[in-house]
Write a structure and sequence with these properties.
mainly alpha; two-stranded antiparallel ribbon
């Protein structure tokens, strides 16, 4: 019967959507658990190395391969937690990458100069900021279209 076939297709698609939703939720829970575990490490980094790390609106570019120095300077934390904390710190694109421009000074753990941001690095950071702005603009347009559509209905 054709109806039975359509029912099977509907249920299999429904099952697949449910599985994808569950996978996304597990992934999000795992991400949030990593953030929670790395938070004390990030606080300790800011307390021990205030000239290098700040949770303010502007974050100076860090020395390349600073992770290795942090692992040596903070043996009480697992290297994976230090890596996660650095990923969180540098992943805040608006705060961290906004300081990336050609010639910006990178900082080591003591806050001393440790190189400069190259043109390629500055371009990469600028592209990341443009992607965020484009995504925000697209979301705003989608909300506007949805509002107009709901008013027209």
């Amino acid at each position: 019967m054709p109806g039975d076939e359509q029912t099977k297709i509907y249920h299999s698609e429904r099952y697949l959507r449910k599985r994808r939703r569950e996978r996304r939720r597990r992934k999000e829970r795992k991400r949030l658990a990593k953030i929670a575990a790395a938070e004390p490490v990030l606080r300790a980094m800011c307390e021990r190395f205030p000239d290098c790390f700040s949770l303010g609106e502007f974050r100076a570019p860090l020395k390349i391969n600073i992770r290795d120095e942090l692992i040596a300077a903070m043996p009480e934390f697992a290297p994976e937690l230090i890596s996660d904390a650095l990923r969180i710190y540098t992943g805040d694109i608006l705060a961290y990458r906004a300081g990336f421009f050609v010639g910006a000074i990178r900082r080591d753990l003591s806050g001393d100069p440790a190189g400069e941001v190259s043109a390629d690095e500055a371009t990469h950071a600028g592209n990341a900021l443009l992607d965020i702005e484009a995504d925000a603009a697209a979301a705003m347009i989608a909300r506007s279209v949805a509002t107009v559509a709901s008013l027209a209905a």
